[in-house]
Design goal:
- This protein is 69% helix and 9% strand.
- It is built from 10 helices and 7 strands.
- By secondary structure, the chain is an alpha+beta fold.
- The strands form 2 sheets. Strands 2-4-5-7-6 form a 5-stranded mixed beta sheet, with helices on one face.
- The two termini are 41 Å apart.
Length: 483
Amino acid sequence: MKLSTQILLAFSLIILLSVADSYTNYRLSRKVHLNSQFLSKSEDVIRNSNKTHRAILEMQSALRGYLLTNDTTFLRPYYKGLEKVPLFFKQQHKLIDDNETQRRILDSVAVLHDAWLVYTAEIINARMENPETYQLLLDSKLRKHVGKNINDSITAKFKRFDKLEYKTRKHHSEMLLHSLHKTRTYSLIFLSMTIFAGICSTAYIVIMITNRINSMVRLADTISKGRFTIVRDSKNDELSALASSLNIMSQKLEKNIQELENKNEELNKFAYVVSHDLKAPLRGIYNVITWIEEDLSEEISPALRNYLNIIPKRTQRMEALINGLLDYARINQKSAPELVDTNALINEITQAIVPRDFTVELSNLPEIFTERLKLEQVFSNLISNAVKYSKPNEGRIEIDCLTILDVYEFSVKDYGIGIDPEYHKKIFEIFQTLREKNEMESTGVGLAIVKKIIDDQGESIQVHSRLGEGTTFTFTWKNNKRI
């Protein structure tokens, strides 16, 4: 299965869980909303019930006050109640339009209240207009508690109404709490499942990709170290193409490296043969010149002698160029790493190639586990270069080392004629020299050898110099620690 398909499936699973979570929360939130809406409405029902009952009680108190004092001022709440109570009943009907039981109770309260109003209207009119009728009503109804019975029934009805409302309110409150609890529970469950699925799918994909990429990195690393292996990959996805390409590259590199080694070996043999064959005619030329000088010395004119003196110098320069070319060809030869005391190594080099009137200062030189021959070639050419370009009577060379972790930064400094900055890159090209071509001391091969060795080691070299201010070559060299 392709990686893109696996990633798509993982994301699809997470999206499905998120959708299921959202849908469940939506359904539960609807229930929460309905229960909350009912509780809000129930609050209005209770409030309106209390207002209606209180208004009726105020009307009853107003009537009692009037009957006791015969003061019409007490009837003001009564008349206000005649206006307000019907409105309260109307509002309550709208609030409980879907509850038949409460509607019936409310209707019975309204009937009782209307009966009470008829009873009270008759008493009030009799009290105001006909004392005899009032006395009759007082004896026949008021003292028999007709009004009180009606009021007690109204109060009982309101209590029953409120009890039903509180009971229903409690049910919806419990439903609301249950819905909230379920919402939290389901949200936690789906969140946990989403996180678990996300972590598992991500970990699976990351570990799988990382392992396969690491195997390819290891393959690339082994290739860089010259071991041409292949990576086993049985998957059929996007990384399989990369693994296949790396395997093909490894096989081709192995073949090309083998061919290159064969060609280098042939080239080295060719260099030895050519150098030997080129040196032979040079020695012949040199011998002929010597014979001419010995056998015909009396017949040689001064001008001809001057020309004959030039020829040995040119042949010697040619021989030096051939030797330099041969040294350059030997760079690719490998040798086993060993522990090298760079202080002792440089002392050996300076004793061999540095004149006795030179001052050589060595400091902080370490022991390195590396190829001795390569490091010796670098120091030999840099020190030789410092000797060649030193000013007369100012022969001084300073060699120092700075350690940075397992990398050493060597510097070879002289106080010679210096190098113009425009030639800093050119001096590392083969056969490039800042001296005249007829001077045998400089072939233009030494610094090219240094540059090639350091490049092959994966290191770097820089030159810091100005005309008349001396030259400092700085290069890095790794310590190949023994495993």
